[in-house]
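[scheduler] slot 2 assigned
[scheduler] job type: sequence-to-structure, two independent chains
[scheduler] chain ordering preserved from manifest
[runner] begin chain α
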Amino acid sequence: MQLMVKDVAALLGVSEKTVYRWIDDGKLPGYRISGQYRFNRAELLAWTTANRIHVSPEIFLEPETLDAKPASLIEALQEGGIHYRVTGTDPYSCLRSVVELLRLPDGVDREFLYQVLWARESLDSTAVGEGVAIPHLRNPIILHLHKPLLAICFLEKPVDFGALDGQPVRVLFPLVAPTVKSHLQLLSRMSFGLRDPEFKSLLDSQAARDQLQEGVRRLSEQLDQRAARSVETALR
């Protein structure tokens, strides 16, 4: 969830003026995006714990926890799109190209998104082997983003991302999610999809958009069915 100054004030039981004072003093972790401050729920919780500040129990809740429906691969892909011949000669120039191509809502600071993706890649490679990398944020970052976003980006030329198997990366799956829950759900669903032989074949051949979309739709349906069976088993 995107936390604004008024949300932080309510969660901490202080005035908005106090929140701004903490920001000005460099005490409160926040991000200035399009002229307004946004706050990461996890970082805010860590800060309040370290400073022994009382918080409302609502800080532990995210709107998504009220919805049992898991993050959908096909819906996230429809948000992010499929892109071919993405340029770049190293991981960072590839990320720059990807950020410029992503279908982002108005108000999202692309330069800020690039910087946090770059920081994550510098920390540890997001390459998962077999020519695939999944660039994502170390923690979901507060952006003007209300839905998870996943894209398929085929690189114009393979690029060394430092994968453990030594293979250069040919396709990127950049992932940006607004909450921890959707972030982890999409990562786990991507892991499932990348083990699917039919989907891997589509990636290897750089299949057309409609074929890839249909492949992701099929994976989404399989995952939804598995999730439904798990719920039924748990309720017995």
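[runner] end chain α
[runner] begin chain β
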Amino acid sequence: MKPAEEQTDWQRVRDEFPALRGRTFLNTATYGQLPKRATAAALAHFERRDQLACTDFLDWFDDLEELRARVARLVGAQPDDIAFITAACHGLATVLSGIDWKPGDEILTLEHEFPNNLYAAQSQAGVTGKECAWSELEQNITSRTRLVLLSTVNYVTGLRPDLDSVIRRLRERDVLVYVDGTQSVGALRFDCAKTQPDFLSVDAYKWMISPNGAGFLYVRPEVREWLRPNVIGWRSDRNWRGVDNLHHGAPRFHESSEKYEGGMVVFPSLYAMQASISLMEEIGPAVIEEQVLELAGEVRRQMVALGAELYPREEPCLPSQIVLAKLPGVDASAFAKQLQSEGIIVSARKGYLRVSAHFYNDEQDIEKLAAAVKRNLG
């Protein structure tokens, strides 16, 4: 907790988000909202292009290194561990294409996983894809399991598995672990140095409150020694800054994760992400986590009081910021549309209402949701 004199001014924070005006937005698990500073940062990049005609384009990459360092701090990594990607599936494709698969290898993921992981497990030629419950993960590992695909928080169920001890045991069995952090990083703290996944892929448009096209892939240093890049471009060679006389011939790859970027990146989105991270740094990751978990707890209390059934908790797991609530006799999809017509934005997944509050929400938002649910239930 911050000292009393440094308590967060949540109203000032909320004022950073124009999309929240006049509506109750509780759907960050689908899309996070942009702070004004993020939009301004993207626009400033376009203005800079107009003013300088892109004559300073190499300087953009210097700014990128500052962002790389900030992303690394956010997830307990080193700057060399971070590559910028355009979407989580981009990161997953880098992983899948860089592994030297053998016939009969297995990919294991969890049931109800995000489609990226489910599709990937079934799409590698000669590789067997398997799904299981979180509680049955380790007993489904075999001598042929090469890769396990997990999410920090499940997009459907809100399951937040306790990854630390499981990943350690999987490493002891020479199993690679890919973690998709899209549904939590920016809301809940994640420490790569502590959890030690082989890969962490994050699409920043949800809880990192950034535009589409901004994201990053963490690759563990030992894995970088053998994981082949799947995109080859002019920045694949380690001397790419020498644009007056670029290297011709086979690329001499970086030792850092930068080698997985290949060419140009989506600068407007990345400048915006840097601005969004600055806001999260000002508030503090611990404060943000406390806020989102407190709001999720209030959602659970309110929904249970209204007779809702919460999605069954699966052990061992950690508190999650995503809440699934099933109201008796209610079509969740139709009900979510009704609430949206009243300016209350939630989503429906698998017959449940999915409520996902971020740090820009407050208890009044939860009260408005509860009042609308009660009113519509009659």
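[runner] end chain β
[qc] chain β: The mean pLDDT is 95.
[scheduler] slot 2 released
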